Amino acid sequence: MARLNPDVLRLYLVTDRSLMRGRPLAEVVAAAVQGGVSCVQLREKNLGTREFLAQALMLKKLLAPHRVPLVINDRIDIALACGAEGVHLGQGDLPVDAARKLLPPEVFIGWSVESMDDVAQSAALPLDYLGVSPVFATPTKLDTKTVWGLEGLAVVRTATRLPLVAIGGIHAGNAREVLRSGADSLAVVSALCAAGDPHAAAAGLRALCDDELKAR
Ligand code: TZP
Ligand code: MG
């Protein structure tokens, strides 16, 4: 399994086209990348396979010159077909072991953990990072189980050496405390997708990440 440098995950944009105020996906992602996003996950819950693949290929082309990795949510087939650098799986998706067998060794795998049982299980799985989901309650995803809170995130930090990607309700106002509670990465949806100026929003969050993480 390829070892993932957690710096690559530092500011992690997870897409949601429904929050983009009518702006094209490419426009919002390009602005966010210019601002300092270091990793992009394409998350599509309502697209057919061909449309999903078309969006993935478009983003792959957009991100490649910036050396920003593309992560595909849920779909191993789409990740393989577009040459994505990573996949993100949840508790209801293809099991991690099965995904690892299907993917080339250099493709990294992230997994959402929703309980301490999941964290315990992660130790035996071929994983590259854990998504701590959700850190705060968020209207962007309503079907969540436990809300970890900063305290829960800190407990997860003590239980694993895998890079931790914090997601759920993260914005410039709480980002520092999330990083101080043990996260290696901030994953955001609305803080960038719904921002009036995604470039400026990304630049602000990135400066904050770089400042908090410089001592590590
Ligand atoms: N997984 C856990 S919370 C979440 C996902 C995809 C949504 C996070 O959205 P936001 O707008 O950054 O709170
Ligand atoms: Mg999933």
Automatic annotation (TrEMBL):
<feature type="binding site">
    <location>
        <position position="141"/>
    </location>
    <ligand>
        <name>4-amino-2-methyl-5-(diphosphooxymethyl)pyrimidine</name>
    </ligand>
</feature>
<feature type="binding site">
    <location>
        <begin position="138"/>
        <end position="140"/>
    </location>
    <ligand>
        <name>2-[(2R,5Z)-2-carboxy-4-methylthiazol-5(2H)-ylidene]ethyl phosphate</name>
    </ligand>
</feature>
<feature type="binding site">
    <location>
        <begin position="41"/>
        <end position="45"/>
    </location>
    <ligand>
        <name>4-amino-2-methyl-5-(diphosphooxymethyl)pyrimidine</name>
    </ligand>
</feature>
<feature type="binding site">
    <location>
        <begin position="189"/>
        <end position="190"/>
    </location>
    <ligand>
        <name>2-[(2R,5Z)-2-carboxy-4-methylthiazol-5(2H)-ylidene]ethyl phosphate</name>
    </ligand>
</feature>
<feature type="binding site">
    <location>
        <position position="74"/>
    </location>
    <ligand>
        <name>Mg(2+)</name>
    </ligand>
</feature>
<dbReference type="InterPro" id="IPR034291">
    <property type="entry name" value="TMP_synthase"/>
</dbReference>
<keyword id="KW-0479">Metal-binding</keyword>
<comment type="function">
    <text>Condenses 4-methyl-5-(beta-hydroxyethyl)thiazole monophosphate (THZ-P) and 2-methyl-4-amino-5-hydroxymethyl pyrimidine pyrophosphate (HMP-PP) to form thiamine monophosphate (TMP).</text>
</comment>
<dbReference type="GO" id="GO:0004789">
    <property type="term" value="F:thiamine-phosphate diphosphorylase activity"/>
</dbReference>
<comment type="pathway">
    <text>Cofactor biosynthesis; thiamine diphosphate biosynthesis; thiamine phosphate from 4-amino-2-methyl-5-diphosphomethylpyrimidine and 4-methyl-5-(2-phosphoethyl)-thiazole: step 1/1.</text>
</comment>
<comment type="similarity">
    <text>Belongs to the thiamine-phosphate synthase family.</text>
</comment>
<keyword id="KW-0808">Transferase</keyword>
<feature type="binding site">
    <location>
        <position position="73"/>
    </location>
    <ligand>
        <name>4-amino-2-methyl-5-(diphosphooxymethyl)pyrimidine</name>
    </ligand>
</feature>
<dbReference type="InterPro" id="IPR022998">
    <property type="entry name" value="ThiamineP_synth_TenI"/>
</dbReference>
<feature type="binding site">
    <location>
        <position position="93"/>
    </location>
    <ligand>
        <name>Mg(2+)</name>
    </ligand>
</feature>
<protein>
    <recommendedName>
        <fullName>Thiamine-phosphate synthase</fullName>
        <ecNumber>2.5.1.3</ecNumber>
    </recommendedName>
</protein>
<dbReference type="InterPro" id="IPR013785">
    <property type="entry name" value="Aldolase_TIM"/>
</dbReference>
<dbReference type="InterPro" id="IPR036206">
    <property type="entry name" value="ThiamineP_synth_sf"/>
</dbReference>
<keyword id="KW-0784">Thiamine biosynthesis</keyword>
<feature type="binding site">
    <location>
        <position position="169"/>
    </location>
    <ligand>
        <name>2-[(2R,5Z)-2-carboxy-4-methylthiazol-5(2H)-ylidene]ethyl phosphate</name>
    </ligand>
</feature>
<keyword id="KW-0460">Magnesium</keyword>
<feature type="binding site">
    <location>
        <position position="112"/>
    </location>
    <ligand>
        <name>4-amino-2-methyl-5-(diphosphooxymethyl)pyrimidine</name>
    </ligand>
</feature>
<feature type="domain" description="Thiamine phosphate synthase/TenI">
    <location>
        <begin position="11"/>
        <end position="192"/>
    </location>
</feature>
<dbReference type="Pfam" id="PF02581">
    <property type="entry name" value="TMP-TENI"/>
</dbReference>
